[in-house]
Amino acid sequence: MSYFRNKIRAVNLVELIVVIVLLGILSSISLPRLFSLTSSAYASSLARLKGSLATGAAVVNAEARLQGLESRRNLAFDIDGDNITDFPIHSGHPAVANDCEIFLGGLQRWIQMDLPTTCVAGQAVGTKWRGVLAWNTFHFMPAEFDSISEDCFVSYREATSSGDDGFARGTPLDSIRVTLVTSGC
User: Fold this and answer.
1) Could you give phi then psi for residue 16, rounded to 5 degrees?
2) How far, in Å, are 37, 142, 157 from residue 122 at the CA level?
3) Is 175 helix (H, G, I), strand (E, B) or coil?
4) CA-CA distances (angstroms) from residue 113 to 4, 35, 72, 137, 173?
């Protein structure tokens, strides 16, 4: 009788080892796919934000053109006609204006996304997004990322003018730039 009982325990132990090995194999196959899905989700969110920034800036530019303001720099702009300045524009596009609070406050008026609205030391941190100000450029990244060096971000760079080096402010050279980088997502 004890021989039979020991044989059953041995079979159960072998079965347990086989199950553990199979679980290890399955997890080694499924974990990379899970990380790939996460990476895809970050890239999709950033692509959506890029589209929102570009579309919102185009709408602001169209309104600025209607008001004859497309060639003005750092102009207080009222997009909704309530006689309250909503955000600054430069060459008819929303300006970063080297001010995190002003840019994020105005941003809420020209795109509809859940983005951070307050800044501390030039950085904005929200539940889904993080933002970093770099002179005339604002970089957005998922909240789980700490820096643009991780290559998972979208940047909004305001329109530049000749003389944007701090000297004579001149004529517009180009429009805004919205750049998407997802190689590190």
Assistant:
1) -60, -40
2) 31, 17, 15
3) coil
4) 67, 25, 27, 19, 29
CA 1/CA 4 separation, integer angstroms: 5
pTM to 2 decimals?
Answer: 0.73
- Are the CB atoms for 169 and 161 separated by under 8 Å? yes
One pLDDT digit (tens) per residue for the chain, 185 residues:
555 555 555 567 777 787 888 777 777 776 666 666 678 889 999 999 999 999 999 999 999 888 888 777 768 888 888 888 888 888 888 998 888 888 888 888 888 888 877 787 778 888 888 899 988 899 999 989 988 999 999 999 988 765 444 434 444 556 789 999 999 98
Instruction: Please give the structure tokens belonging to residue 96.
Output: 């970063």
**Over the Cα atoms of the chain, what is R_g?**
26
DSSP 161: B
Residue 127's contacts (CB-CB under 8 Å, 6 or more residues apart) are: 114, 143
Q: Is 74 helix (H, G, I), strand (E, B) or coil?
A: coil
Helix/strand/coil for 164: coil
Assign residue 135 a region (left: φ > 0; alpha: ψ between -120 and 50; beta: otherwise).
left
